[in-house]
Write a structure and sequence with these properties.
- The chain is of the alpha/beta class and 170 residues long.
- The protein has a single domain, classed as 5'-nuclease (Rossmann fold), CATH 3.40.50.
- It contains six helices and five strands; from the N terminus they run βααβααααβββ.
- Strands 2-1-3-5-4 form a five-stranded mixed beta sheet.
- A hairpin with a 2-residue loop joins strand 4 and strand 5.
- 30% of the residues are buried.
Length: 170
């Protein structure tokens, strides 16, 4: 079963940033896998942050046309729009979990898209928001073995109905 995975701007940026080749390769590996599984999701906010950072702050800067082509590519993931439902959900998350506004908006966008994984390095790895788990693309493995469950026979919590049996004399 393939689960939906929300990709934050930090992952998109690391995939384009040559300054740390290990992080670049890891981010690219995650993105490639999500394309293959057709399970990647993102938001308009994340794509906007990627574009601005890539074209104005990343060293070396990504040319605007190239950055826009990258943004346009991720439009295929039907990014979550910033609308009233997102704003209301983000406000609830901000208050409940005491997150910064932009982080709450990312969590809200992931939850509104029914994602089970939020891939980012901007929140602590292993954090959980309802059914959504935060994973760092640089500390998590791509493929985890499936969980193994053992069914054990439970002891009854109450004694059986009826009269107790007499102990046999030895």
């Amino acid at each position: 079963m393939t689960v939906r995975c929300f990709v934050d701007a930090s992952v998109l940026l690391h995939a384009r940033d040559p300054r740390d080749p290990l992080k670049q390769a890891r981010a690219a590996e995650w993105l490639e896998r999500l394309w293959q599984q057709r399970s990647g999701r993102t938001s308009v906010q994340a794509l906007s942050e990627f574009y601005v950072t890539a074209t104005r702050k990343l060293a070396p800067r990504v040319p605007e046309d190239l950055a826009w082509d990258e943004v346009a590519r991720y439009l295929a993931w039907a990014p979550q729009e910033t609308d009233e439902s997102l704003l209301r959900r983000a406000r609830d998350i901000e208050r409940r979990y005491h997150l910064a506004w932009w982080d709450a908006a990312v969590v809200a966008a992931a939850l509104l898209q029914d994602c089970l994984i939020l891939l980012t390095e901007d929140l602590p790895d292993g954090s959980v928001f309802g059914a959504l788990a935060v994973r760092s693309p640089f500390s998590s493995v791509l493929e985890q073995p499936p969980a193994e469950y053992m069914v054990a026979r439970a002891q009854p919590l109450h004694r059986p109905r009826g009269r107790p049996r007499r102990a046999l004399a030895v």
